[in-house]
Amino acid sequence: MTTVIIEGLGLIGGSLALALKQEVADTYLIGLDQNLSSLRFAKQAGIIDEIGTGLAAVAPQADVIILATPVEKIAASLRLLATLTLKPNVIITDTGSTKQVVMAAAAPLLTQGVTVIGGHPMAGSHKSGVHAANADLFRSAYYFLVPGQQTAPLQVARLQRLLAGTNAKFLQVEPTEHDHIVGMLSHVPHMLAATLVNETTQQFKDSPTALRLAAGGFRDMTRIASSDPQMWADILLTNTAPIQQILHRYIGDLTDLEQAMTARDQTALLDFFNQAKVTRDAINPQKAGAIPGFFDVFVDIPDRTGAIAEVTTILAQAEIQLVNIQVLETREELNGILQITFASEAAQQQAQQLLAAQQINILRRA
Ligand SMILES: NC(=O)C1=CN([C@@H]2O[C@H](COP(=O)(O)OP(=O)(O)OC[C@H]3O[C@@H](n4cnc5c(N)ncnc54)[C@H](O)[C@@H]3O)[C@@H](O)[C@H]2O)C=CC1
Ligand SMILES: O=C(O)C(=O)Cc1ccc(O)cc1
Fold first, then answer.
1. Separation of CA 127 and ligand 1 centre (Å)
2. Any bridge partners for residue 4, and if so which?
3. Where is the domain boundary, 247, 282, 317?
């Protein structure tokens, strides 16, 4: 029997719990969370076996401790764990989006010889809470592991075996490198998305037309602004220096762009957008990105009853599983676009062939 404690039964903690149970049959899972209704739901749904009374009370019986709360709380729990008597072979890991602060808080435990391996699954969503948990959330996603300096490779391998049910791709990095990479690819983009939304709030109030138009590309660019505010406040407060560095470069780039425009400098403007286009076009959308490679098919949907059902029925009859389905309201008065996401390239291609054979119009999109 492996006793696993998960503190923070939200989207990530809940999804890990489900993935762990799937892989290791004799896992006994104890859940901790400040939100009692999440704990009750998790217990009722069989995501956890027991509701814990508190970290200090249950930690001594754990073989594995997973901290999946916002980052500041992860750091506080690591400091608390250093004051307790734990099982000699315990593995402590976390899921926090920043790693320097987490590993600094782990230092007293590491000094005691306790195994602490920082973790960060690069998959998730703008949704939060245990209700959004999904055993398959981490499939094919990169999963950063950040061992302590003295941590034996054997222990890292042990953690990877425990987490095998995530079907993630593990990648070892140093805390500083980690925080710079995610600052660039996740944290600053998130700040920009939230700023875009805040900047347009008043416009939406004043103009219903603006709000209607926002249903298209703007909505896609700003999806992540719906994420949990506490989680993002903690991320910025624990990755401040790397984010500041990156942000200053952005501000410089935008200032240059504005100056080129004001100076009517066609060449500079063309250079700027050309450079962006060449780089963006070279990214394979199904391989790159923080989020696992999703395989989309875009279908033209005529504006008549039953049009979407026709498409989904064809896929259901062929038993092709969908990861997600949504209507993109990008073109008012015209046909809608149905975006169907599959978990694999094989499913995507099979769906494409089946739909094309039924005269359904498949759109090409980069
Ligand atoms: N949402 C995402 O896409 C990803 C998030 N992460 C990281 O994983 C961690 C968890 O994120 P999510 O699951 O998305 O958040 P969430 O908001 O879905 O879940 C967090 C859970 O922690 C609990 N919690 C918060 N403060 C607490 C406290 N002081 N004591 C006890 N429980 C507390 C909340 O009640 C909630 O159930 C965060 O550190 C986040 O940075 C990592 C990868 C992806
Ligand atoms: O939903 C998205 O696009 C995300 O970017 C999710 C996400 C949020 C925070 C992380 O540390 C890692 C992934």
1. 11
2. 29, 64
3. 282
Could you give the angle at the alpha carbon of 121 between the alpha carbons of 117 and 127, nearest 5°?
135
Per the domain annotation, does 290 fall within a domain?
no
Does the C-beta of 122 come closer than 6 Å to ligand 2? yes
CATH code for the domain in which residue 144 is found: 3.40.50.720
Question: Is the same domain home to 314 and 348?
Answer: yes
Q: Is residue 82 domain-shared with residue 215, that is, in the same domain?
A: no
Nearest ligand, measured from the Cα of 186: 2
CATH number at residue 192: 1.10.3660.10
Helix (H) or strand (E) holding 301: strand 295-301
Which residue of 186, 231, 239 sits with most ligand 1 atoms within 8 Å of its CB, as the best mutation to test the pocket? Answer: 231
Q: What is the mean pLDDT of residues 80-89?
A: 98
Domain carrying residue 145: 2-174
The closest residue, in CA terms, to atom 2 on ligand 2 is: 125
Of 3-7, 20-24, 328-332, 343-347, which range is least confident?
A: 328-332
Can you tell me which atom of ligand 1 is nearest the CA of 124?
3
127 lines ligand 2 (CB under 6 A): no
Q: pLDDT-derived band of residue 288, with 50, 70 and 90 as boundaries?
A: very low
**ipTM reported for the complex surpasses 0.90:** yes
CA distance 16 to 64: 12
Domain with residue 343: its CATH number is: 3.30.2130.10
SS3 sequence, 275-296?
HHHHHHHHCCCCCCCCCCCCEE
